[in-house]
Amino acid sequence: MDVNAAVAAAAAIAGVLTGVIAMLAFRWSERDQKRPTRTSLHTDAVLPPGVDTVLSVLRSSAVVLDEADAVVKASSAAYALGLVRGGKLAVEPMLNMARDTRRDGEIRQVELDLPRRGTGRGEALAVSARVAPLGSRLVLLLVEDLTEARRIEAVRRDFVANVSHELKTPVGALSLLSEAVMDASDDPEAVERFAGRMQIEATRLTNLVQELIDLSRVQNDDPLEDAEPVRVDELVAEAIDRCRHQAGTKQITMAAGGTADLSLWGNRGQLAAALGNLVENAVNYSPARTRVGIAARRVTAPGGEHIEIAVTDQGIGISDKDKERIFERFYRVDPARSRATGGTGLGLAIVKHVAASHGGEVTVWSSEGQGSTFTLRLPEASAARERVTDHHMPGLDEEDESGQPDGTTTVTSPYEPLPAPEVLP
């Protein structure tokens, strides 16, 4: 009995000691939690009232430094730009500005080009930094990212320079030709020849101005405001009719296939202009007595049913280095040939903007000396239609079943063959 009593007493004493230790640990933990940390000192005690709230709503990247150049407060945008690393301001010129401002209290501003983090291509990040005193000990740094603004300004300057050059060429030609007509007033043949050249240059100038207007319109207008279901076969027929004269002059056969029962959702005028530009380019850059094919099919995409319209030619093709730039304004793969055909260098830029504004895209497949295939991929008018899986693209060297001469459709494309196309003479 004495042994059992001793064991019980020892257990009771151990329990009491354990409870006391637990209580002391809990009290110690509460004291630690109530003790002000370095972060709370910086944000609550050091920052003036309301500054934290103001900095959180600023669009600029904000950094607040104390008298030891330590970061008291930094916005998430400052971290994203790589301005703050390891609790320190990582940009030496900005740090020097902050020190100078802390010393004399003057507001300073400078524009800097900073290396972009995570890229090995040497791309610069253009920023505007402004430093101002915040109270007696703190310094506020506000940084604006100017990279996109500079890019847009560079694009605008290039566009104005290109437009000026493109407009000056036909205007200068018209001026010289008019002088030649005046000097050759007594030579009817010369007058007729110069007048014909003037008509060509006037047409080129008219086309350039019209395409500039079209490009401005597709960039500024919202095509979905006046959107409607647009039948693909009607767009294709309109594009072929637009190029019928040029194709007939070069004896180029145009054929379409797979366009029945397909509809797009968008602005009819813009869609017709985009497809017309693709077909016109195919005809202009194709040798005589070749074929241009237009084929369409429905495809299933993550965003719903889409329609692909492919325009294929047997032209000169496009090199790999040119594929990356062909959708730029005024860029021409073959400037001499483009001028001979009256091209302005804006057609594919218009196609790209129309596709993007309609929620689609335009892609190109090409092989030098074999031809090119430009594919418009746009949302279908009704995503609830049944999936059609037996549609294919027209293949090379397929004989047309309409019985019309030169009815073969050539489509050099990575797609599978479609049923025999309908030839539109």
TrEMBL record:
Domain Histidine kinase: 162-382
GO molecular function, one term: phosphoprotein phosphatase activity
Compartments (UniProt record): Cell membrane
Keyword Phosphoprotein: yes
Biological processes per GO annotation: cellular response to phosphate starvation
Keywords of this entry: ATP-binding, Cell membrane, Kinase, Membrane, Nucleotide-binding, Phosphoprotein, Transferase, Transmembrane, Transmembrane helix, Two-component regulatory system
Extent of Pro residues compositional bias: 416-425
Catalyzed chemical reaction(s): ATP + protein L-histidine = ADP + protein N-phospho-L-histidine
Bilayer-spanning residue ranges: 6-26
Compositional bias ranges of the Basic and acidic residues kind: 383-395
Record protein name field: Sensor-like histidine kinase SenX3
Organism lineage string: Bacteria, Bacillati, Actinomycetota, Actinomycetes, Kitasatosporales
